[in-house]
Amino acid sequence: MIDAIAQQPILAALIALVGLGILFGALLGFAAEKFKVEGDPIVEQIDELLPQTQCGQCGFPGCKPYAESIASGDAINKCPPGGQATINAIANLLDVPAPELDAEHGEEADVRTVAYIREDECIGCTKCIQACPVDAILGAAKLMHTVIADECTGCDLCVEPCPVDCIDMLPVEKTFKEWHWPAPPTTADLIASDRRPAA
Amino acid sequence: MRTWITPGGVHPPENKHQSLTMPIGTLPLPEKLLIPLSQHIGTPAVPCVEVGKKVLKGQKIAEASGPLSVPMHAPTSGTISAIEHRPIAHSSGMLAPCIEITSDGRDKWKKHEGFKDVENATPAALVKAIGDAGIAGMGGAGFPSAVKLSPGYQRPIHTLIINATECEPYITADDSAIRERAAEIIEGIGILSHILGNPSNIMIGIEDNKPEAIAALEPHVEDTGISVVSFPTKYPSGGEKQLIYILTGKEIPSGDLPADIGMVCVNIGTTYAVKRAIVDGEPLISRVTTMTGDACGINRNYETLIGTPVSHMLANSEFNKETCSRLVMGGPMMGFSLTSADVPIVKTTNCILAPSYDEIPDDEPAQPCIRCGMCAEACPVSLLPQQLFWYSQADDHERLEAHNLFDCIECGACSYVCPSNIPLVQHYRHSKGEIQKARAEKVRSDHARERFEFHQQRIEQAEKDKEAKRTARREAAEKAKAKAAASPEKSASTAGGGAADIIAAAQARAAAKKVSPEQQQAKFERSIAGAEMRLQMAEEKLADAGDGHSDEQKNILTAAVEGARQKLEQAKGRLAEHIKQHNGEQVD
Asked: Is residue B168 a contact partner of residue B328, using CB atoms and an 8 Å limit?
């Protein structure tokens, strides 16, 4: 064996390298099958950052489709419910500069709202139930409907289809649990070079 | 006894002597008391009285709701005058549900009695009694004591620590209570020890700036196994984790509770409340509160009823509004400014501070951070306040959590030493709130995603089911067609026979419809007879009318007679024509 290698060093080296190549190729191929990742992980990550309002203000039928679109290169500033915080988070994830919210798709709201059905006026048409992306409206044909406030994402989608306009978007009242300290005023910039140029 | 030294800390002026010149006093009974339903950590209590109901002192007016909650009791006898939202002592200035009692001035107790034989009572019964008495930690956090005293059998307690540190400037509520009520306090500690299965180590931790209190305790602890441990004064030594480290040298891991390492730490004011609840059967309806500050003529401690408005306390303390810079609930380091003097004293209120402008001037504007690092030296939890400040300004939640923002006890030592007057603690509080908000939003959005995905799945399934039904129907129709095609002869013969039958039946019906000429003639004759009768009746009417009627009516009747005659003639004409036709046919 050793004699053979000594006599044919080039051939021996070739066989060894080809052998290693085949071995590692097989190993990698096996690993690729065994540890295959289902779906696109970047889409999942973007979807995690989106607010899941499912409102469709971005022009896509839900947050997941928009996440897919972002992953394939769409603008990241089309989500008004998420606002600047979401834009910043996605920009951070994708390592791109964070643009301002695109006003074309709506404005960022200060207070969270949920849908509220004026139950006396409801005619039981079930149109809002069909429009709700998270099944947060309860009711049946010709019977009064009502919104499960805890499940409502405030997406507005039920307001439009209502034939008697009995759905209001009401702001959620702030409780002690939700209250937190406001930010103190920022420190004055004493050093001239620290001051931002006036916009 | 050996004590350990915590990192950092500051030595602000103590200012405790002002309120210690007089013994604990009592205030005149306020006209109205306001009891907030949430004076503790956990879910608010639920009212069990209605407006207009008369209550006695110590009567339960609100029930605990859930395990982490305490009931509320009437601090005096009187009438429930309102159950509504009112401003309470909270930094947000928001309104919260409260019960208002209008005092009847008699201050009449309900019937109450304590345990006769505490030694032989079961710990569970004692814990229940403490819960029913509405006792929540009186040091400031307001954690329901009954919960703290039931650590569970998995966590045996070997050390009971009584917190008498009272490290914050100005406050002397615990100090004065120890001086006057040492015997009761030791009795309360005995009850706690009994509940926790007689831990081997019971310590009262007290700073060395309270020699009178230490002297008052010493005679009572002899032969009880309780040791009074004094240690050098430093702010903040009174934090639970700080005190445990000072007394035992043990650190509690981040995010854990003292019970996880076999310790329970109770405020000394709570032990007095426990004694009152168990031995005397009195619920927690009053506490010692320090009234101090240069803007008040009288600085002293009061045994204050829970629900007493701060304004009532000020009115009885020669308060001078002109010289007062602000009203603070709690101490100058960790307390918060009150937006209104009408808010009530609650179970956790240990001090009302009414300082003059000289004592606590208005906040100076913050200057930029110069990275001096004094805050890092002062931090008792060994955090990096200057780094946290940068990340807080940048809203960098990830880095804030990586730098253990949530271990910050908000003691205010960093803000106190900051040469640039940066309100560091305010930044941290804000960031903590923001992070908690983001966490809550994350939970909400995950929940919404789950529901949305289920919704999509359901719609798809419904669509699939519909499609399946449609295919099934189509297949059934095709099958029927194929079956029909398979036996063409049989179907053709039945179809031909059917058509012939239909035609025959239709012809038969048409034939039946045709009437015979005789029947037709009879019909005409009947109509002539009818017309004759009508003519006769019309003529009779005309004759009857005579002179009694106007010309107009006569004209109408005459016209009717004429019409009837015409109709009779028409009928006669039709009959004649019919007979002529038939005769013609017969002739042909």
From this structure: no
Residues of chain B in contact with residue A52, where contact means CB-CB under 8 angstroms, are 444-446, 448-449, 452
Disruptive mutation site among A181, A189, A193 for chain B (greatest number of B CBs within 10 Å): A181
pLDDT at A198: 46
Tokens of B43: 């879910």
Whose CA is closest to B388, among B418, B356, B365?
A: B418
Name residues whose C-beta falls within 8 Å of residue A104's C-beta, 6 or more positions apart in sequence. none
Q: Is B194 on the interface with A (CB under 8 A)?
A: no
Give B367's contacts in chain A (Cβ within 8 Å): 187-188, 190
What's the confidence (pLDDT) of residue B508? 77
Interface residues of A toward B, Cβ cutoff 8 Å, are 47, 50-54, 62-64, 132-136, 151, 153, 174, 176, 178-191, 194
Residue A199 predicted with pLDDT over 50 = no
Domain span holding position B416: 374-433
Query: Is residue A28 included in any domain, yes or no?
Result: no
pLDDT at A29 exceeding the cut of 90? yes
pLDDT score of A184 more than 70: yes
Q: What is the pLDDT of residues B290-344, one digit of tens each?
A: 999 999 999 999 999 999 999 999 999 999 888 998 899 999 999 989 988 899 9
B368 close contact with A: CB closer than 8 A: yes
Pairing state of beta strands B72-73 and B159-163?
A: unpaired
Evaluate if residue A46 carries a pLDDT over 80: yes
> Which one-letter amino acid corresponds to residue B557?
L
> In sequence order, what are the beta bridge partners of B136?
B144
Could you give the 3-state DSSP secondary structure of residue A157?
coil
Alpha-carbon gap, residue A110 to B138, rounded angstroms: 37
ipTM of the complex: 0.77
Residues A94 and A45 in one domain: yes
Q: Which amino acid is at A157?
A: L
- Other CB atoms within 10 A of residue B99 CB: 26
Nearest CA-CA partner of B25 in B289, B310, B347: B289
User: Is A52 within 8 Å of B433 when comparing Cβ atoms?
Assistant: no
State the smallest CA–CA distance between residue B118 and chain A in angstroms: 39
Q: Whose CA is closest to B356, among B319, B310, B331? A: B319
CB contact B441 to A (< 8 Å)? yes
Residues B72, B74, B75, B79: is their CA dihedral positive or negative? positive
Evaluate whether A177 touches A119 at the Cβ level (below 8 Å).
Answer: no
3-state helix, strand, coil in chain B (%, to 5): 45, 15, 40
Amino acid B169 reads: P
Nearest to B54 by CA among B70, B34, B74: B74
C-alpha closest to that of A137 among A162, A163, A105: A162
Which residue does chain A place closest to B369, by CA atoms?
A: A187
Q: Looking at the structure, do residues B272 and B418 belong to the same domain, yes or no?
A: no
How many DSSP H helices and E strands does chain A contain?
6, 4
Is A103 within 8 Å of A118 (Cβ atoms)?
A: no
The number of domains in chain B is: 3
Question: Which burial class, exposed, middle or buried, applies to B84 when counting CB atoms under 10 A from its CB (0-12, 13-18, 19+)?
Answer: exposed
Residues of chain B contacting residue A189, judged by C-beta atoms under 8 Å apart: 368
Dihedral sign computed on CA atoms, order B350, B354, B359, B364? positive
Query: pLDDT category, B113, cuts 50, 70, 90?
Result: confident
B380 and B338 fall within a common domain: no
| CATH assignment of the domain containing B553 | 1.10.287
Q: Which of B303, B307, B295, B256 is nearest to B276 (CA)?
A: B303
Range of A139's domain? 111-172
SS3 B547: coil
> pTM for the complete prediction?
0.76
Q: What is the DSSP letter of B57?
A: B
